[in-house]
Write a structure and sequence with these properties.
This is Sucrose phosphorylase. This protein has 489 residues and is of the alpha/beta class. Helix content is 32%, strand content 20%. The protein is globular.
């Protein structure tokens, strides 16, 4: 299948109306021509934590969200994209529970990375761990096993609890590959077209390395999984937060990649009223990317922009966002912080609030995103021009809840009446239907406080102009009759 060069929506299964059935009704009622590119449904599977990212299985849909029938129905009209956490699975899964009950005698034991697979005697070595890019203070958890009446330490890259809810899978095990294949085959049967390989950068554990995007081993795994996806006529989207050079290697390898640099560069241009860094980036970036401004996590900073940003300037931008209500995700490993101690992993906020809830600035940001080559994705909170949900952060203690508000049908109805949302929807429709976006892209020379971008094909063109002083956004284009036209966005 070919990925459509149209705008996609990102949403949780319960964030627009409460379940998948209502989501489908809303899509049909309001958004058929807005998101023909597809719908990224964040994990709809039974899960024991991390809002779906600790799945028990991929063979079932969480009953509170709906059924596979709902997914198939959405897939009849839209390309459905779902996540597969190739790095881990829930400790509540039947696979790991069987391991806890039977120990090494479990038929699923080889799915997991017991520490004797890493260290010869099964005892972790601090010097090795210091080199790793950690997502928790130690990359393993201890469990009591009934099967041998003892304790097992297994690898757990992620998780805020101890022991973790997210148990790493041993991707070298034939059993794991057999399990992953069964998940893919089920996705195919359920009308899923695109699979995001969540946390794929962490799948290789190798002593003496950061255990993150370990080369060349990562390519063997990607090659295997891509061959399987190709055989099922499915597309892959690896999700890797890493130094930009890693993303570029993935692109050279032929993968679709995420543009995790663009959200920061756009925010920087609009708050600093200068095109310098954004222009430099737009002129050199690979084109085969999925673009986004906002998502369920945060605006990426480190390591995605390492060696691209001045940390003093980055601190200024971070401080502006914090003043506007943002909270921060920080780097844990001392070795992976900047030399001056800068340690911001992600800025957690809505993009609308990051731009001080300025409608014109927000529309300018979306226009830059839609004119940047790639497949644009719009997060559901961004679609509604949502504000920071400080109350939910305070209620849950989870900083990412700032940008994860669940909208009722009534709230969506009111949201669609906002002027900024009407402007955004019109802009999305233009991006979906104007043929020049399938042509050639150019970054046009401009004054430092302007943005000028161009697409052209077969006599059609659309030229974007943004004043970074006023945030006025104008598109000049050739209409259906071949006449020059102006669209005040």
């Amino acid at each position: 299948m070919a990925i459509k060069n149209k705008v996609q929506l990102i949403t949780y299964p319960d964030s627009m109306g409460g379940n998948l059935k209502v989501l489908y009704e809303l899509l049909q009622k309001h958004f058929t021509d807005v998101f023909p590119g597809g719908i990224h449904i964040l994990p709809p599977f039974p899960s024991s934590g991390d809002r779906g990212f600790a799945p028990l299985t991929y063979l079932e849909i969480e009953p509170d969200f709906g059924t596979w029938e709902d997914i198939r129905a959405i897939g009849e009209q839209f390309n459905v994209l779902v996540d597969l956490m190739v790095n881990h699975i829930s400790r509540q899964s039947l696979y790991f529970q069987d391991f806890l009950e039977k120990g090494r005698a479990s038929e699923y034991a080889d799915l997991f990375i017991t520490l004797d697979k890493i260290w010869e005697n099964g005892e972790p070595v601090g010097a090795d761990i210091e080199k790793m890019f950690l997502r928790r203070s130690v990359p393993y958890s201890s469990f009591s096993t009934l099967g041998n009446g003892g304790e097992e330490k297994v690898w757990t890259t992620f998780g805020k609890t101890d022991p973790s809810e997210q148990i790493d899978l041993d991707i070298h095990s034939p059993l794991t590959r057999q399990l992953l294949q069964s998940f893919f085959e089920n996705f195919k049967a359920q009308n899923v077209k695109i699979v995001r390989l969540d946390a794929v950068g962490y799948v290789i554990k190798k002593l003496g390395t950061s255990c993150f995007f370990v080369e060349p081993e990562i390519y063997e795994f990607l090659g295997w999984i891509r061959q399987m996806a190709d055989s099922l006529d499915m597309e892959l989207l690896p999700e890797v937060h890493a130094h930009y050079s890693t993303q570029y290697k993935l692109s050279e390898y032929g993968c679709w990649i995420y543009d995790f640099i663009l959200p920061y560069r756009v925010l920087e241009a609009l708050t600093g009223r200068s095109n310098t860094e954004l222009y430099s980036y737009l002129r050199t970036r690979p084109h085969k990317q999925f673009t986004m401004l906002d998502c369920h996590d945060g605006i990426p900073v480190k390591p995605d922009l390492d060696d691209l940003i001045d940390t003093d300037k980055a601190r200024e931008l971070v401080d502006i966002c914090v003043e506007r209500g943002a909270n921060l995700s920080l780097i844990l490993s001392e070795e992976h912080k900047a030399a001056d101690g800068f340690d911001v992993h992600q800025i957690r906020c809505t993009y609308y609030s990051a731009l001080n809830e300025n409608d014109d600035a927000y529309i300018a940001a979306r226009a830059i995103q839609f004119f940047t080559p790639g497949i644009p994705q719009v997060y559901y909170v961004g679609l509604m021009a949502g504000r920071n949900d400080i109350e939910q952060v305070e209620k849950t203690g989870e900083g990412r809840e700032i940008n994860r508000h669940n909208y009722t049908v009534e709230e969506i109805g009111r949201g669609l009446e906002q002027d900024v949302v009407k402007r955004l929807m019109k802009l999305i429709r233009f991006r979906n239907t104007y043929s020049a976006f399938d042509g050639a892209f150019q970054v046009l020379d401009a004054a430092p406080d302007e943005i000028r971008l161009l697409w052209e094909q077969d006599g059609k063109y659309c030229r974007l102009f943004i004043s970074l002083q006023t945030y006025q956004t104008v598109i000049e284009y050739v209409d259906e009759e071949g006449r020059p036209a102006t669209y005040q966005v």
